[in-house]
Amino acid sequence: MQSKVGLASEPLIEASGLTKQFGSVQALMNLNLRVMPSEIYGLLGPNGAGKTTTIKTILGLLEPTSGWIKVGGFDPAVNPIEVKSKIGYVAENPIVYDSLSPRDFLEFVASIRKTDQTCTNRLVTQLASAFDMANYFDSPIATLSLGMKQKVAIIAALIHQPLVLLLDEPLNGLDAKSSRIVKELVSFHAEKGGAVLFSTHIMEVAEQVCTRIGIIDQGKVIAEGTLSQLKGKTEGKGSSLEEVFLKLTHEEDEVADTTRMLREIILKNEVS
Amino acid sequence: MKLAEAWYLSRIPYKEVVYRSIADEKGRMWWGAFGQKHSGKEDQSDSELTKKALKIAKFDKIIVAIFSVVVSAVPFFSSFFGAAAHSLVSSAVLSIAVTFGLTTLYAIQTLSSFVNTESSVLLSTLPVARDDFSLITLFSFLRSVDYIVVSSILSQVVLTAYLSASLLATLVMFIASVISAVFATTAALWFSRVFQKNLLRGGRSRANTVLRLAFILMWGFLLVVVGFLFSIPLYIVPNLEQMMLGGGNVPSILLSLLFPFSPGIVIGATVYSNVPLTTASMASVATVGYGLFAVLAGKWSLGTVKRISQGSGVKIAREIAKDFSVKTRSPLLGYVFKDVKIASRNPATAFFFALPALETVLITLIISSFELLKTTVVLISASMGGLFVLLLPLALLSAEGRGFEYTKTLPVSSRKITVAKALVSTATYIPVPMALICLSLIKPFASISSIFIPLLMIGAVTSASVFEVKIFLGSAARGKIAAVVNDLEKLVVGGFTVLAPIVAYSVVFLKSFDHVLSILAMGGTVLAEITVAFYILRLTGCDSKNT
Q1: The sheet that has A212-217: what strands, in order across it?
Q2: Which of A49, B75, B253, B408, by CA, is between 20 and 30 Å from B229?
Q3: Around Cβ A269, how many Cβ atoms within 10 Å?
């Protein structure tokens, strides 16, 4: 970890009144978020709810229309270099330099992040071995599968042992073994005092990994808390996070109607 | 499937190829949100970007087609001015040679995306017969070079018809132009395919790197030769004409067997009566042979396109890594290494690295007829090398591609990026002064102070590179699409920066006839440019807080 977290009461990620407008589309609407040290905050939401926009805004890739953000006490609009130094980021679709090999790419990332040679080699060796990358470590990234690219992106995000991890669907394309390893890595990171913002569509993952969950819909956090707190908000009707989620996003009835209609269409129509 | 229907459907994979070559490889749209104060406009939707990318591609194609018409017509100008008695022959030959080079180079820019089988993925999932699918893929491939090929053939045929007033000569020119177009597209396809295969093989093999370097040199050489032919047709035409039509001599026999000289001589034989019979006969046989070879080349291209459409023929070798060690460097050096690796692995940008080496060859050619290394030759050579190197910062920016989306998440300032790219460009220029100094050992400088000219130019090249990258980053910050269309602006500023010290030298020398004073004026200009570049970088340093 870059620096041991001294003030456990200070949030490592804090966003207040965050608004982001893309032309006529309101991606974020007065979004408030706090992620404390040792916390794994799950960001759940339907497609287009604003999860990726939230993460990109925290990272400083997008400038908020209004509101403010602090990462480890720094504002990404004022101190982008400091903020980016503290963050390890895994994008939803791993976009890396296709013509480089994982080794070339990790050398580039480690150089930019000014990591120590010995520590980096130890960490990369452990992670690459854990992810069974021996056959792929010197192949162009363009020739790798989605899962393998995701593994490269995950190692790159951890290479400087950051204070904050921003993970946007990090389990995309990963096999069961690698998914398990990533979940464990996330837990170790939190154990060490780091903060994790974990965006996912998979309810089971959020249930297993996250210590606190925020449900985002139409650019706003509509509910927040531990799993049991969220269940409480739906008056005990939801037994799983999926049901809680559908209830809170008011999609429960819509899903029921849609599936009924689809059932009729598929069962009644003959396949040509 | 009807041909018209296949042609219509081919626009889908073609659009994908165009989009990839503009967006994925050039990647400039993704530079937005990086420049000053995150002010990149990220509110353009993907569909808008795609439409704009396609519009730009069409505009690009039209511009290149117009340029192709001009390029193919220029060699014929010597005929208009009566440069030689039978200059139609060498004009036709030069025109074909130049359009071959231009078509090949242009095709390489798009074909590196085309040889990626993913470009056909959209259609491959549909219930389309395998042969129809191959036909569609072939048409999508032809769409990438259609304007340039048609326009150059038309201009060559029309000019030959006008100058020769012979139907037979016009027909031969048409056949020769078609053969040249087939050779050019086949060569580009072959080159892109081999390059792609070499890259996909992966591993840390030095043999692969050497092979890539050989290809880079080969195509860089082609570029220089094309530029050379294009710039001096008026000087080259009369000598070539004499050499080609000289009856019975060895050069004329050899030339009559080589494409595009053979069809050129056949054109001459149909128009002029004094072309030696042996030369004309050999040229006719050779032209027929090249026609047959073009058919074979076309068949190979068809087969290759078919294999691309079916996703076969790509072999990926996995080499087991012996260790997972990574070498960390300073951030600046890390960025430089990354830039060199990426640009040298992209067939569309790789040959820019070969230019300085080829520049050295060119210098040798230029000076071979002089006893001394005259100051004018040094001025021209040094500035030409600088102008060639100006293409590199643009190539390095293009080669970033979509990967830059990731780099934006790293703690790296735009100043570091600018410096890294300027360093790579400057390093590419270094062989030019080295070559000149080495050559001065054989042919001494007319004035010893000339040694400072290429050395001072290093500073001008560095400044020009800084200006080019800064203009790019500035326009990228204003809007994503704007960055795509301002290559000209960057080149003009870069060109001015490179040429200003040369102009300063020349002006002072013409006034004073004093080499030392001229060098001082040149040095002063370079110093001023470097000062401005440093000032801009310092400003960027302040901006980096917001980068």
Answers
A1: A87-90, A164-168, A195-199, A40-44, A212-217, A220-225
A2: B253
A3: 8
Contact between chains at B406 and A107 (C-beta distance less than 8 A): no
Q: Give the range among A188-202, B86-100, B274-288 with minimum mean pLDDT.
A: B86-100
- For B25-82, the pLDDT digits (tens) are 444 444 433 333 443 444 445 566 666 667 767 777 787 788 888 878 877 776 555 5
pLDDT value at residue B17: 66
Token duo for residue B224: 């220089």
Characterize the bridge pairing of strands A40-44 and A164-168.
Answer: unpaired
Which among A28, A96, A99, A100 is the top mutation candidate for probing chain B, defined by the most B β-carbons within 10 Å of its own β-carbon? A99
pLDDT in tens, B361-382: 665 555 555 667 778 878 887 8
What pLDDT is recorded for position B543?
Answer: 47
Any B CB within 8 A of A139 CB = yes
Which helix (H) or strand (E) segment holds residue A209: the answer is helix A203-209
Q: What is the DSSP string of B168-237?
A: HHHHHHHHHHHHHHHHHHHHHHHHHHHHHHHHHH-SS-HHHHHHHHHHHHHHHHHHHHHHHHHH-HHHHH
Is pLDDT of B230 > 90? no
Give ipTM to 2 decimals: 0.87
Candidate from A60, A107, A134 with C-beta closest to B321: A134
B192: which 2 tokens? 């892109």
Considering CB atoms only, which of B199, B318, B410 is closest to A112? Answer: B410
Asked if the peptide bond before residue B260 counts as cis, ω within 30 degrees of 0, the response is: yes
Q: Which of A59, A96, A99 sits opposite B346 (nearest CB)?
A: A99
| Bridge partners for A88 per DSSP | A165
Which residue, among A37, A130, A51, has the nearest Cα to A86 in the 3D structure? A37
- A201 vs A45: CA distance, rounded Å: 7
DSSP state of A174: -
Report pTM.
Answer: 0.76
Rounded to 10 deg, the angle between the B261-271 and B277-310 helix axes is: 140
| Element holding A230 (H helix, E strand) | helix A227-233
